[in-house]
Write a structure and sequence with these properties.
Layout lengths: L11 H16 L10 H8 L10 H12 L21 H13 L6 H22 L6 E5 L2 H19 L10 E5 L4 H9 L3 E5 L9 H9 L3 H5 L1 E7 L11 H10 L3 E5 L24 E4 L1 H4 L7 E5 L2 H8 L31 H10 L1 H24 L3 E3 L7 E6 L4 H13 L7 E4 L2 E7 L7 H9 L3
Parallel strand pairs: 2-3, 2-4, 4-5, 5-6
Antiparallel strand pairs: 1-7, 6-7, 8-9, 9-11, 10-11
Bound molecules: pyridoxal-5'-phosphate (PLP).
Pyridoxal-5'-phosphate binds next to helix 6.
Length: 456
């Protein structure tokens, strides 16, 4: 054991301090906090990485007093920007346990127990989506990694079907402008192209739209289509594409059907919204991020395939030193995405699901949906505000009548600086507006009312 590998007796108490800090952070009502300039942090934190080390107690003090307060608390009930996260206590605590065990969960050989539990959580998501028996996948770091891995599998299937004829042809991915930016990014990473599909006034893509775009392509271009990507809960507006129409069209043209439910997929467990997802069961691949609306800590994206063997063919890494992993037919999570070493990042979700049961998830998601509905009613009743569209899920888009982009930005900066709320502006059809994304069951209608009041 080197000097570094365990605390000396004097520092033993530090173990408890670190654990006590973690427990307290998981349980506390966090302050909102805000970013701080690097120059200020440099002065306040001083030099932290030195030849002899500053000692654990001092490093912990600097984290607690200087650095942690310079991070916005994503689990604050008035964190409305982007897609927040509100991990359960069970999920947060178990994340600590997962780090403690440091299980290698890329292979069954090394991480069988962890992989088994992750697969239990994946099976719940697959059953919510109505994917067939045999569907499976893995957890990756986030929606961006999930979309890329799914599209790599899609391209593999497309080229495999062509028997080598398209191995040097750039693939084409059909999706709407409302698809998450990570889809275009995946296309860039894969040296593929995107063909845009028009949407309706809510930003919803449907099967006919995809069909018309395909019919408008010449035969050579049409052959390049390897995947159609639908969004189940657009990030900007929370709108779900026409999954059954798109799924049928994709099948009709022989293209892979990928459904990006990174944000919205959580609402599959909400009976009030389940009908909006009809057609998701047709997906060849599907993602949902537990670190968004399924109450797990970062970083976690559940990536599922209808036919995992295709993903395996696309993603399995071969090397002499890895041969031992493949001696037996076992479930190796490394084979289902663009990764190899991985932590069992699905375990916090699994532990929380096992602890509370799936019904608690349904109730928590329904709570956030009800809060969003009430918030929408408040906006419609307020003379100074305009609801941009009725929310389908838990994203609220609203305009402050008479405000320009600068006004929204100023208000947003002030709201964060005062500790009221974190809500960054967005735009809809080029018109600036405010976007509130509600995924925290602790967010109450009063929290929203406080924010709307300051928009006068
Ligand atoms: C629909 C959708 N897809 C993909 C992503 C990317 O997810 P991540 O930030 O976990 O990579 C997001 C993020 O908000 C999203 O809303």
């Amino acid at each position: 054991m080197t000097r570094m590998h365990s605390f000396d007796r004097r520092s033993k108490r530090l173990s408890w301090k670190v654990l006590a800090y973690a427990l307290n952070r998981i349980r506390m009502d966090p302050p909102l906090d805000h970013p701080v300039d690097a120059s200020v942090l440099r002065t306040r934190a001083g030099r932290t990485v030195t030849d002899d080390g500053i000692g654990g107690p001092e490093a912990l003090r600097i984290w607690r007093e200087v650095l942690a307060p310079a991070c916005i608390s994503v689990d604050h009930p008035r964190f409305f920007s982007y897609v927040p996260a509100a991990p359960t206590e069970a999920a947060g605590l178990f994340d600590v346990a997962v780090s403690a065990a440091n299980v290698y969960a890329g292979s069954w050989q090394e991480g069988a127990g962890a992989v088994f539990a992750e697969n239990e959580a994946l099976a719940w998501i697959a059953s919510l989506a109505g994917l067939p028996e045999g569907a499976g996948g893995t957890f990756v770091s986030g929606g961006t990694a999930g979309n890329l891995s799914a599209l790599i599998a899609a391209r593999w299937a497309w080229r495999d079907r062509a028997g080598g004829r398209l191995d040097r042809t750039r693939a084409l991915i059909a999706c709407s402008g409302a698809a998450h930016s990570s889809v275009a990014q995946a296309a860039r990473a894969m040296d593929a192209d995107v063909v845009p599909v028009p949407v309706d006034e809510r930003g919803r893509m449907d099967g006919d739209g995809v069909r018309r775009v395909v019919e408008g392509l010449d035969a050579a271009e049409r052959e390049r289509i390897c995947a159609v990507v639908a969004t189940a809960g657009s990030t900007n507006a929370g709108v779900i594409d026409d999954l059954s129409g798109i799924g049928r069209t994709a099948a009709g043209i022989g293209a892979w059907f990928h459904v990006d439910g990174a944000y919205g997929g959580a609402a599959l467990c909400a009976p009030s919204r389940r009908h909006l997802f009809t057609g998701v069961e047709l997906a060849d691949s599907f993602i949902v991020d537990p670190h968004k609306w399924l109450f797990a800590p970062f970083d976690s994206c559940a990536l599922l395939y209808r036919e995992p063997r295709i993903a395996r063919a696309a993603h399995t890494q071969r090397a002499e030193y890895l041969d031992a992993i493949h001696v037996r037919e076992e479930w190796n999570p490394a084979d289902y995405a663009h990764h190899l070493s991985r932590r069992p990042r699905g375990l916090p979700l699994w532990f929380s699901l096992a602890t509370h049961g799936t019904r608690a998830y349904t109730e928590a998601v329904e709570t956030t949906l009800r809060t969003t509905e009430q918030a929408a009613r408040m906006v419609t009743c307020a003379g100074h505000l305009r609801l941009v569209m009725e929310p389908e899920l838990s994203v609220l888009l609203l305009e402050r009548i008479g405000w320009a982009a600068d006004d929204y930005q100023r208000w947003s900066d002030d709201a964060l600086a005062s500790g009221l709320a974190f809500a960054v502006p967005t735009s809809w059809n080029g018109v600036p507006c405010l976007r509130l994304c509600i995924v925290n069951p602790e967010t109450t209608p009063s929290d929203v009312a406080m924010v709307l009041e300051t928009l006068r």
